[in-house]
Design a protein that fits this description.
- The structure holds three protein chains of three kinds.
- In chain A, about 30% of the residues lie in helices and about 20% in strands.
- Chain A is α/β, with parallel strands linked by helices.
- Chain A has a single domain, classed as NADH:ubiquinone oxidoreductase-like, 20kDa subunit (Rossmann fold), CATH 3.40.50.700.
- Chain A has a five-stranded parallel sheet, sandwiched between helices. In chain A, strands 4-6 form a two-stranded antiparallel ribbon.
- By secondary structure, chain B is of the alpha/beta class.
- Chain B has five domains: about 55 residues, no CATH class; about 90 residues, 3-Layer(aba) Sandwich (Glutaredoxin), CATH 3.40.30; about 210 residues, NADH-ubiquinone oxidoreductase 51kDa subunit (Rossmann fold); about 80 residues, Ubiquitin-like (UB roll); about 80 residues, NADH-ubiquinone oxidoreductase 51kDa subunit, iron-sulphur binding domain (de novo design (two linked rop proteins), Up-down Bundle), CATH 1.20.1440.
- Helices cover about 40% and strands about 10% of the residues of chain B.
- Chain B contains 24 helices and 14 strands.
- The radius of gyration of chain B is 25 Å and the shape is globular.
- Chain B starts with a helix and ends in an 8-residue tail after the last helix.
- Chain C is an alpha+beta fold.
- Chain C folds into two domains: about 70 residues, Ubiquitin-like (UB roll); about 130 residues, 2-Layer Sandwich (Alpha-Beta Plaits), CATH 3.30.70.
- Chain C has a five-stranded mixed sheet with strand order 2-1-5-3-4. Chain C has a two-stranded antiparallel sheet with strand order 6-9.
- Chain C is globular.
- In chain C, about 50% of the residues are buried.
- The chains are: A alpha/beta, B alpha/beta, C alpha+beta.
- Chains B and C meet through helix 4, helix 18, helix 19 and helix 20 of B and helix 2, strand 7 and helix 5 of C.
């Protein structure tokens, strides 16, 4: 039987969740025995080359590109996991939710205390740039998500336990210390 | 301004317990209760500003910014909308140039929405500076706006008066009584004073026993035995109070409006009898703000009764002292809940209290208090006049006497009907000339939405209890959009917010039903709504929350097919809309929002 | 003399004094009923509903119900756990609770209940309402995004003359916690600290301090909320 295939991505996140994946330390060698990685920043495969079993999503959706990537993941992965607070509830980027986009952009590029060098008052608008959404969306509001692993970042032991349980089909028992929102 | 406000505060004896009256006066005189006004009131009452603010901000008719010279409150409750409020609002907006929630630049007109104003039998209706305007249409709106632009006083815009006391010089309102059926109790011939005289010839215990024997149960909807309530209260020590709940706020009910108009004397007599029974000296009539137009008339009835010694000191020479004051509300549905009504009467936010203690133990000013509905007090007068046994013989075995129904919606003869308990819905529909009926909303939004298959059921506390609201919904109506969504918006607005589940669930359920109405719903949404309604019912503190999911839970139960036709049978559906969500950022940078997904 | 009453919680025989609030009586018997708005010796608010129990088949709030002789109370059932979890989830979607950036994280009662019930994701959609914070008072921040309307501060924190420093404003979904700017300016350090301490979440924060306890040593890092009540009594 071929090994289950995992893909991962970081949307509107800080890569902290990916750092936490790496935080499983030497268990990463066991992980490589258990699964194969496809599209992921970990192996730098940029596009899906195979249909995957598990997609791990870090970050929520703050712009149109995030939505695009998330939908690609839904298309190519049998199971999707929201990893971390940002994927689950928007996280710190979602602190802007409730504030109109114009107010946010004006603050970031025109009026904020750190915009001194932007003397021409330029608002980035290259065609290549994705557009900011009206708010940061939790992933499950865009596509169906199958599992959630909270934390900022989720504890490495939690990620390890969850992935192993998924791959082996064992039941997942989560000790109290592992489910944290910070 | 400062001197005037201090003057107002002094009129009420610098009593924080009269904060409602102080705020009402300030709002009426200045068109708002501004931050400046709050600072002055707080200082004069030696309260903190946030405490004044908490009361001010609780009620719908207090505003922090000045309303227009003409403040137009359009009733957006279900029946008003069914009868054409959409057109009326459209005409007001067109002619004034502002939307609901706004005020014209010259400050002349402000438009507002308001919940049911107790005129369901003559919708669409609106309040302009407290004056009621009924049966509106585009033509009438044009005339009203012309009058406003000409500077006419709102009262002078009323050209025809309703029947009975509606035409009284102190009332002069266009409101009609629409009494369609008078029964043997509250709408039968009435002669003031007989009840009081008889009661005072008995001892207090005798009065209570008579009411107990009648099996009269509370007419506000909950149906608690009145005699038992009076008995409990009478056994407590200390000062006692009588409160009358005339906050008639359940959308679709307007029967107390008619009683207050045509049977004010009977009501005050009933309160006096109640006061005599429990040993109170003071009564408070808590009158909903929407009925301000009756206040001067009601005061005149009180003076008349004082002059006849039916009220005041040593009533009818029997050594009993009792008087009544009128407490105006300021727009909050939850104040119809008895403990919230007490809080409000004390000048506070209308938040329901925790029980125990019950109002009969610790009510108004923390003293033993009975709170009864207008119709209950009126009925008690008849019971004393004619005896408990006479009353108990009317109605059904568990629901004695008669009941006033306020029937409105899709029927030929909307109005007030005094029926004996036990009438079936089918009989009721024939009585009011209703055909092609899709549903009857029994007991208002907090009641149940009844399908035709259950029209044989009886109007009685043991089968279909009601405080009186009956809304007939025709087959041509969109049950979910026109009725359920409107009701849920009402509850989300009217939740006092102090308990989590009521505050939050009503909003969540409102959003869920909106999702379904807008065509984005899936089967799971309906199942979720049913489950969440159940949690809400089990966990909230007062009757509002316990019943506020009824529009959803009873329609899911009785009209499941209406939901099924509207939702998709899929596991998951996102209502995310890329184009809509990038609109704002595209606008900022001047890009087209037509992005390719 | 106070009268002793006997009652049972999930079958366990308990004793209390007549009139004592059930939630306190339960704690005295080593039974934890979760609370957010309740504090012993304070007039109950009955607002958070998390202490909902079933008494003789009826759902009641344990913080407003006095114990009575012979009461049969259900505190631990799948149904009640689901109700309580739903309330926690509801509070999380209603406010804006960004735990990773909150000074109270690890010491927060709401978060701790999220841990207790292993809330992985709320079943309700996030509201993301804008709520403005108030930093005008010299001693404290009022971070409204995190307020759960427990009314503890409203009930406890008063000035020297008994006037309220905190009160509600608005109603329903527009409800917010409000602070009296004039009176807040007179708050002592002790009162500010007390306000922060009684706040079950991170809404009231003392200025110029924060993040004192390192991760791992905070109240709920390793200990489940309520375990002290349950362990004290073994």
């Amino acid at each position: 039987m071929s090994k289950p295939i995992i893909a991962t991505t970081s949307l509107a996140g800080c890569f902290g969740c990916h750092m936490s994946i790496l935080d499983i330390d030497d268990r990463i060698l066991k992980l490589i025995e258990l699964v194969e990685f496809n599209k992921s920043p970990i192996d730098d495969i940029k596009t899906f080359t195979k249909e995957c079993d598990i997609g791990i999503i870090e970050g929520g959706c703050c712009n149109s590109e995030n939505v695009h990537v998330l939908k690609e993941f839904r298309k190519h992965c049998k199971i999707l996991i929201s990893l971390g607070e940002c994927a689950i509830m928007g996280g710190l980027p979602a602190m802007r939710n409730g504030i109109p986009v114009k107010e946010c952009l004006d603050e970031a590029y025109l009026n904020g205390p750190t915009v001194g060098d932007n003397t021409e008052k330029i608002m980035p608008n290259d065609e290549e740039l994705p557009m900011i959404l009206d708010k940061v969306y939790p992933c499950h509001e865009i596509v169906k998500i199958d599992y959630y692993l909270p934390g900022c970042a989720p504890r490495a032991d939690l990620i390890w336990a969850a992935v192993v349980a998924l791959v082996t089909g064992d039941t997942l028992n989560i000790p109290y210390e592992l489910v944290k929102f910070d | 301004m400062k001197d005037r406000i201090i003057n107002i505060v002094e009129t009420y004896g610098k009593d924080p317990g009269r904060l409602m009256d102080i705020l009402l006066k300030v709002q009426a005189e200045f068109g708002c209760v501004s931050h400046e006004a709050i600072t002055i009131i707080a200082a004069a009452l030696h309260m903190s500003e946030v405490d004044v603010m908490q009361t001010r901000s609780f009620y719908h008719f207090f505003t922090c910014r000045p309303v227009g010279k003409y403040a137009v409150y359009l009733n957006n409750s279900v029946v008003s909308m069914l009868m054409g409020m959409g057109d009326v609002q459209d005409e007001f907006e067109k002619l004034s140039g502002v939307k609901v929630g706004e005020k014209t630049a010259d400050g002349l007109i402000s438009l507002h929405h308001t919940a049911c104003i107790g005129m369901n039998d003559q919708e669409p209706a609106a309040l302009i500076n407290g004056v009621v305007f009924t049966e509106l249409n585009r033509d009438k709106v044009r005339a009203l706006v012309a009058d406003m632009k000409a500077g006419k006083a709102a009262q002078d815009m009323v050209t025809t008066y309703g029947d009975g006391n509606n035409a009284n010089p102190l009332m002069k309102t266009m409101v009609k009584n629409n009494i369609r059926k008078a029964g043997a109790v509250v709408l039968a011939e009435y002669c003031m004073g007989k009840g009081i005289a008889k009661a005072l010839s008995m001892d207090a215990r005798g009065v209570i026993n008579e009411v107990k024997e009648s099996n009269l149960r509370g007419r506000g909807g909950a149906g608690f035995p009145t005699g038992m309530k009076w008995d409990f209260c009478s056994r407590e020590a200390g000062d006692h109070y009588v409160l009358c709940n005339a906050d008639e706020g359940e959308p679709g009910t307007f029967k107390d409006r008619v009683l207050l108009t045509e049977r004010a004397g009977m009501l005050f007599e009933g309160m006096t009898i109640g006061g005599y029974a429990i040993g109170a000296k003071e009564g408070v009539l808590y009158l909903r703000n929407e009925y301000t137009y009756m206040k001067a008339y009601l005061e005149s009835v009180l003076s008349d009764m004082r002059s006849k010694n039916f009220l005041g000191n040593n009533i009818l020479g029997k050594g009993f002292n009792f008087d009544i004051r009128i407490q105006m509300g300021a727009g909050a549905y939850v104040c119809g809940e008895e403990s919230a009504l007490i809080e409000s009467s004390e000048g506070k936010r209308g938040e329901p209290r925790n029980r125990p203690p019950f109002p009969v133990q610790k009510g108004y000013k923390n003293k033993p208090t009975i709170v009864n509905n207008v119709e209950t007090f009126c009925s008690s007068v008849r019971i004393i006049e004619n005896g408990g046994a006479w009353y108990g013989a009317l109605g059904t075995s568990e629901s004695a006497g008669t009941k006033l129904l306020s029937i409105s919606g899709d029927c030929k003869l909307p109005g007030v009907y005094e029926i004996e308990w036990g009438m079936s819905i089918k009989e009721m529909l024939e009585m009011v000339g209703a055909e092609n009926v899709q549903a009857v909303q029994v007991a208002g939004p907090s009641g149940i939405c009844l399908p035709p298959s259950q029209f044989d059921r009886k109007i009685a506390l043991e089968d279909l209890p009601t405080g009186g609201s009956m809304i007939v919904i025709g087959k041509n109506r969109d049950l979910l959009k026109d009725v359920v969504l409107n009701f849920m918006e009402f509850f989300a607005d009217e939740s006092c917010g102090s308990c989590v589940t009521c505050r939050s669930f009503n909003m969540i359920l409102r959003n869920s039903i909106e999702k379904i109405v807008s065509g984005h719903g899936i089967r799971k949404d309906v199942e979720d709504m049913a489950a969440w309604s159940e949690i809400l019912r089990k966990t909230t503190r007062c009757g509002l929350g316990q019943t506020s999911s009824n529009p959803i839970s009873t329609t899911i139960k009785n009209f499941r097919e209406v939901y099924d036709a509207r939702v998709k049978n899929v596991d998951y559906q996102s209502d995310f809309d890329m184009q809509a969500s990038v609109m704002a950022s595209c606008e900022v940078v001047g890009r087209s929002s037509k992005v390719h997904e | 003399m106070s009268e002793t009453v006997k009652f049972t919680i999930d079958g366990k025989e308990c004793q209390g004094t007549k009139g004592q609030l059930l939630v306190d009586a339960a704690a005295d018997n080593g039974v934890y009923i979760p609370v957010l708005c309740h504090m012993r010796d304070l007039i109950p608010a009955g607002s958070c509903r998390i202490c909902t129990v079933k008494i003789n088949g009826r759902n009641m709030a344990a913080c407003t119900t006095p114990v009575e002789e012979g009461m049969a109370i259900e505190n631990n059932s799948d149904e009640l756990t689901d109700i309580r979890k739903a309330i926690v989830e509801m509070l999380f979607v209603e406010g804006n609770h960004f735990c990773p950036a909150c000074e109270k994280s690890g010491n927060c009662d709401l978060q701790a209940l999220g841990y207790k019930y292993q809330m992985m994701v709320p079943r309700f959609p996030y509201a993301f309402e804008r709520r403005d914070m108030d930093a005008t008072s010299p001693k404290i921040f009022l971070e409204r995004n995190r307020c759960i309307f427990c009314k503890r501060c409203v009930r406890v924190i008063k000035d020297n003359e008994g006037r309220s420093i905190f009160a509600f404003k608005g109603r329903g979904t527009t409800l917010q916690i409000n602070i009296d700017k004039t009176l807040a300016a007179t708050m002592s350090d002790e009162l500010a600290q007390k306000a922060m301490d009684i706040c079950p979440v991170g809404c009231i924060l003392k200025k110029e301090v924060g993040f004192i306890d390192p991760i791992g040593q905070r109240k709920y890092d390793k200990k489940v909320i309520g375990s002290d009540i349950e362990n004290n009594h073994q």
